[in-house]
Amino acid sequence: MRDRLPLIAGNWKMHKTPAEAREWCVGFRARLPEVPAGVEVVVCPPFTALEPVSGALQGHGAWVAAQTVSDQPSGPHTGEVSASMVFSCGARGTLLGHSERRAMGETDAMVAARVRVALASGLRTIICIGESLAQREAGVTVEVLAAQLASALAAVDPGEIDRVVVAYEPIWAIGTGRTATPDMAQEAIAGVRAAAANRLDANLLRILYGGSVTPATARELMAAPDIDGALVGGASLDPESFARIVEAAA
Ligand code: PGA
Question: What residue spans define the domains of the chain?
Fold first, then answer.
């Protein structure tokens, strides 16, 4: 029996105005009045909805995270938002290194710098890693994941492990409806856990699977011994389907 608490995270990406976000929270609370025992829930709205969602989920048990933060604490960085700013809007964590951001030019070094600033600002971090289809087909999945992980974890003090979560998201599975099979996800995540052991106590590290997770696939994925929850994109936009995924983890 694993003693890592399963985590279900909803990544809204660039969806929902503040009003739509509040409406989602009302629906989610009606459907799931409190977070069930045995699971942790986090919602990652856009910056502009962090404060409304934090307010609307007050007392519910789900916590709120940003989708990224700047690698700088403050200063002349037009368009950037700092870790302390999202904290002040109620966020207690942040996603970092999502493949959609890496595709826009975010490098391993930039992700590592963001990890450092986020942890120093008191945020928890959900560090996203994943291989492309070409990399998988070339047989270099393990090497790609290990390199992304090593760079990000170099920014983590082993004593900070309780504030770090890793999300394995194969790029070819994101938003495509092409979920990795539980066996594929388990194999990759077991490899990630083995690689993490170079840096910290990997038995304590929670590692999520992400990529087209739905209520239909969640339970089977999370039954795999190394999969400690899910990072859910599309299916998190609807409170009903997100609640069903939470229930599958509890
Ligand atoms: P998806 O997105 O569930 O829509 O595939 C997952 C993610 O990008 O975090």
Answer: 7-69+79-159+170-249
Task: Assign domain 7-69+79-159+170-249 one CATH number from 3.20.20.70, 3.40.605.10, 1.10.620.20, 2.60.40.1120.
Answer: 3.20.20.70
Tokens representing 56 are: 């609307």
Closest approach atom of ligand 1 to CA 99? 8
Catalytic site includes residue 169: yes
Atom of ligand 1 nearest to the CA of 100: 8
- Catalytic residue, chosen from 40, 98, 100, 131, is 98
Please state, in angstroms and rounded to a whole number, the distance separating the CA atoms of residues 23 and 68. Answer: 23
Residues with Cβ within 8 Å of residue 27, at least 6 apart in sequence: 239, 240
Q: How far is CA 131 from CA 77, 135, 170, 212, 238, in A?
A: 30, 6, 5, 15, 27
Q: Is the pTM of this model over 0.85?
A: yes
Percent of the chain scoring above 90 in pLDDT? 99
Nearest alpha carbon to residue 93 among 164, 154, 36: 164
Tens-digit pLDDT profile for residues 124-180: 999 999 999 999 999 999 999 999 999 999 999 999 999 999 999 999 999 999 999
